[in-house]
Amino acid sequence: MSKMSLSELARMKQEKRRIAMVTAYDAPSARLADDAGVDCILVGDSAAMTVLGHESTLPITMDEMVMLTGAVTRGARRPLIIADMPFGSYQVTSRRAVQSAVRLVKEGGADAVKLEGAGLTLKRVSAIVGAGVPVVGHVGLTPQSATLLGGYKTQGQTATKARRLIDEARALQDAGCFAVVLEAMPEPVGARITEALSIPTIGIGAGASCDGQVLVWHDLLGLTTGHVPLFVQRYAAIGEAIRTALGEYVRDVRSGAFPSARHRYAMPAAELDVLNAG
What we know:
Elements: H1 6-14, E1 19-23, H2 27-36, E2 40-43, H3 47-50, H4 62-75, E3 80-84, H5 94-106, E4 112-114, H6 121-130, E5 135-140, H7 159-175, E6 179-183, H8 187-196, E7 201-204, E8 212-215, H9 217-220, H10 238-255, H11 269-277
Parallel strand pairs: 1-2, 1-8, 2-3, 3-4, 4-5, 5-6, 6-7, 7-8
């Protein structure tokens, strides 16, 4: 199949064909997502927590995002690859935002970048799109500004706040975004935004009316430990399978069952005699 394009995503919205997106952070995962028929892969700054062990998305660096993006683009061929712009890479100036976006495309191989929020972000979106880099917006729960939002909480639960989210999504579309991620908001709000926009909406905890859905790789495969958000659907228990396999390995090593005879390299008898004679 041919490479996913922005025009194809737009057609999917018009034809009401749902868009499937997942996060991925390395080449093997990206290859599996590609094989499964995923339309878009988000190289999320969620890697700060899922891969690098941080408590939030904030510590991940631009260099780390470029490296992870490069790994994903080497693993996947058909999906559209979208790279998150990490905290600090676009908030300060439009010039820095453009430089950061260009790095993710030129060095990381991304097809597009994603920014969080509206407000000043609108200027950054316009500047990045003006430089020739496609942009995805993100409204609702925006993890990079979770502290300002009162924590990882549902957004838009009053009519006033819901209207603000609708206005922000429209503003991102007007600024040049080709799609918008809607995170952690009541289903009717996600539906209103989807109806109001001509560009695709990708939901993560925003209801079934969005044009597509995205989940974090580790959440949907059961690799996440502890609490997971309400909107997560686990499709496998890979974490438990890994723990079981590693436990068996440890037991076999300690008991001497591994490596067995079939795992060992042989040596010609004559050469072994010479070695032993020496």
